Amino acid sequence: FVISDSLSPGVFALNEDLPFFKSGSCAKGNEKVTCTTVYKCRNFSLVIFFLPASAVIPLHNHPEMTVFSKLLLGKMHIKAYDWVDSVCNEQASSMRLAKLKANSVFTAPCNTSVLYPTSGGNIHEFTAVTPCAVLDVLGPPYSREDGRDCSYYKEVPYEGLAELKDDNEHSYGWLEEIEMPENSKMDGIHYLGPRIIETAS
Questions:
Q1: In the chain, N or C terminus with fewer CB closer than 10 Å?
Q2: How far is 54 from 129, CA to CA, in rounded Å?
């Protein structure tokens, strides 16, 4: 966690002039996200996401995973939820109640954020205010074979529950699982920065 806080764009040979930060001919808000895998093993992966201005990584989860996110470049709006399991779900079975954990704009350089399998904002969405680069350290990495596939969600207008009448209703939302959104598809590129060298233990 302390190491990730000290990371800077220069560590990965990044700057705002790289071509994948530039908006293409797509409609605003539908720009393509590019990603590169810095390192991956069975226990964790390091991935950098490059977002041109207005690009979005839609609301998605990280099942059974701990994730460290470090904004390396730019300004990004992050919205994040955790599931609320202590309240009976009275809505349709396709929706679950979630509590809002973050809904703010972050500007690099800033501290690393961490989310856990059930807390810290396990379900989140990134929207680039300016061209951005964000490093995610995922442990363990996504693996469909091991039951850690990525799911996507949409927000449904909140209807208050009696159990939460004394709480701020704006802190909650109904989330419905959906098929992979079109704007979640990313272009992958080979990592071109300094390599991570494995050493014998």
A1: C
A2: 6
Instruction: Give strand pairing partners of 33.
Output: 186
The helix/strand/coil state of 38 is strand
In what helix (H) or strand (E) does residue 4 lie, and over which residues does it extend?
helix 2-5
Q: Are 103 and 174 in contact (CB under 8 A)?
A: no
Total-model pTM = 0.82
Neighbouring C-beta atoms of residue 76, cutoff 10 Å: 26
Question: CA-to-CA distance for 84 and 26, rounded, in angstroms?
Answer: 37
Query: Minimal CA–CA distance to 98: which of 134, 46, 61?
Result: 61
Helices (H) and strands (E) in the chain, counts: 1, 12
pLDDT at residue 182 greater than cutoff 80: yes
Bridge-based pairing of strands 45-51 and 33-40 is antiparallel
- The sign of the torsion formed by the CA atoms of 41, 45, 46, 47 equals positive
- Please tell me the distance from the alpha carbon of residue 179 to that of residue 156, in angstroms, as a whole number: 15
Instruction: With H, G, I as helix, E, B as strand and everything else as coil, classify residue 35.
Output: strand
124 — pLDDT class (breaks 50, 70, 90)? very high
C-alpha 120/C-alpha 178 separation (Å) is 22
Type and span of the H or E element at 152: strand 152-156
